[in-house]
Amino acid sequence: MKIAIVGTGYVGLVTGTCFAELGLDVTCIDINEERIDQLGKGIIPIYENGLEELVKRNVNAGRLHFSTSLADSLNDVTVVFIAVGTPPDEDGSADLRSVIQVARTIGQHIDKYHLVVTKSTVPVGTSFKVRSTIEGELNKRQIEVDFDVASNPEFLKEGNAIPDFMSPDRVVVGVESEKAKAIMTRLYKPILLNKFRVIFMDIPSAEMTKYAANSMLATRISFMNDVANLCEIVGANVNMVREGIGSDMRIGRKFLYPGIGYGGSCFPKDIKALIRTAEENNYEMRVLKAVDDVNEDQKRILFDKFKEHFKGAIENKVVAIWGLSFKPETDDMREAPSLTLIDLLLESNCKLRVFDPAAMEECKRRIGDKVYYARDPYDAALDADALFLLTEWKEFRLPSWGVLEKSMTNPVVFDGRNIYDKKELTELGFVYHCIGK
User: Fold this and answer.
1) What pLDDT, on a 0 to 100 scale, did the predictor assign at position 47?
2) Cβ atoms of residues 296 and 329 within 8 Å
3) Which pLDDT score, from 0 to 100, does residue 92 have?
4) Residue 358, pLDDT score
5) What CATH number matches the domain at 211-297, 3.40.50.720, 3.30.565.10, 3.40.640.10, 3.40.190.10?
6) What confidence score (pLDDT) does residue 164 get?
7) What angle do CA 124, 125, 128 make, to 5 degrees?
8) According to the model, what pLDDT value does residue 89 have?
9) pLDDT digits (tens, 9 = 90+) for 9-46
10) DSSP string covering 309-361, please?
11) Which is it for the CA torsion 243, 248, 249, 252, positive or negative?
């Protein structure tokens, strides 16, 4: 089977490459000519474990192709996945212009059956807009062409996207015809031979499932951060509390780690979009509004601790930052807590020395030369008055504290992920601050 993936961002490139690995003939399409040219040369625009090797292997095998023209590819394929960006508008709603433009192009050029699958995260009702747009273009051409639409939201975790695709805990698919269901079954059966975990449902439910899943995970994070902040006030230890409640099988242990707030391309955008969808339907998502508010406040909690530690005298302090990406194993800095902290520190005239194993170039692209980009973690900590741990990369878990104690001006650590041991650091002469203890 031949398929097309429109959009070569994170979702589109991973999806297209993984389908090619399964033996399908895949064409990935993007209007960004430079990106398509780079992909054709094996240059990957995103950082994701194992993706570069997978792209090169499938390009060399002749199963993975790249193009800038959807119109030229339509006659050769049966399925078109829409995986373009849906960034938030100023009011929090998802910007669907790219999705609708793809639908418009499909309607302008198809002359045989196609299954059009929305892979982008889109509000409830978007697939119906896609259908209406295609039908409108067919009417302009005064022809009738059979087609179906479907919704297949992605649940890929950055840093673990390829295993998530190849061995998913579930695949959610919204369809409105048996023909579409049969095609989607054929697409996913190779990776689910032992246990077919495709959940078929109606299209609006599939679209809502994506938002509801991310909103639940974000809610657990903000809830735990709220509990952690209260633990500090009343003298409790949030790690013990987390262990206690996580042992309850009804609650479980995942996404109960306190920290400096969530970021990335999904949680912040999806929560705002769901809040906006509710408002458009005269309903208020009160819990999600609180989740969003708690998260925004949590992004500055280490700055407040830093300011309190130095009794407000933080101007010209040298600050080391370990970790810039919103999570390990990615270079993604979208909505990253590090950006909030960097802004606050720069506004206070602090001097920043930063290091991240993957996100240095992305940070330069975003903020330029406002900070010193260190060669390694120890270079970042040189002469620092404080060290902030923001992203729990493996490289940061077991540093040489003796070297750091000698190289820092003030051995003060602000642990935004609670990965270090307070007793150990205190015995080594460090002042240690964390979340919820």
Assistant:
1) 86
2) no
3) 76
4) 95
5) 3.40.50.720
6) 93
7) 150
8) 77
9) 999 999 999 999 999 999 999 999 999 999 988 888 88
10) HTTT--TT-EEEEE--SSSTT----TT-HHHHHHHHHHHTT-EEEEE-SS-HH
11) negative
Lookup: tokens for 329: 């194993």
pTM of the model: 0.90
58 touches 99 (CB < 8 A): no
User: Please, where in the chain does CATH 3.40.50.720 lie?
Assistant: 2-201, 211-297, 299-433
Q: For residue 119, how far is the Cα from the chain centroid?
A: 14
Question: What confidence score (pLDDT) does residue 77 get?
Answer: 96
Distance, CA of 90 to CA of 110 (rounded, Å): 34
Q: What CA–CA distance (Å, rounded) separates 26 from 3?
A: 5
- pLDDT value of position 34: 93
Q: Identify the CATH assignment for 299-433 out of 3.40.50.300, 3.90.1300.10, 1.20.1540.10, 3.40.50.720.
A: 3.40.50.720
Q: Running DSSP on this structure, what letter comes out for residue 219?
A: H
Chain-centroid distance of CA 287 in Å reads 22
Residue 342: CA atoms inside 13 Å, Cβ hemisphere, count?
A: 26
pLDDT value at position 158? Answer: 87
Phi/psi at 258 (5° precision)? -70, 155
Nearest partner of 144 among 152, 156, 135, judged by Cα: 135
Q: Tell me the C-alpha distance between 27 and 47, whole Å.
A: 21
The stretches in the chain having pLDDT less than 50 are none
User: CATH classification of 2-201, choosing from 3.40.50.2300, 3.40.50.720, 3.30.420.40, 1.10.760.10?
Assistant: 3.40.50.720
H/E element, 208: helix 203-234
Residue 84: which region, alpha, beta or left (left: phi > 0; alpha: psi -120 to 50)?
Answer: beta
- At 146 the pLDDT is 96
Query: Can you tell me which residue has the tokens 């993936």?
Result: 5
Cα separation, 350 vs 371, whole angstroms = 10
Residues 36, 29: Cα–Cα separation, whole Å: 8
**Which residues are tagged catalytic?**
266
Cβ proximity of 359 and 331 under 8 Å: yes
| pLDDT for the residue 179 | 98
Q: Which residue intervals of 41-96 are DSSP H helices?
A: 51-60, 70-73
- Which distant-in-sequence residues (6+ apart) come within 8 Å of 342 by Cβ? 321, 352, 354, 367, 370, 371
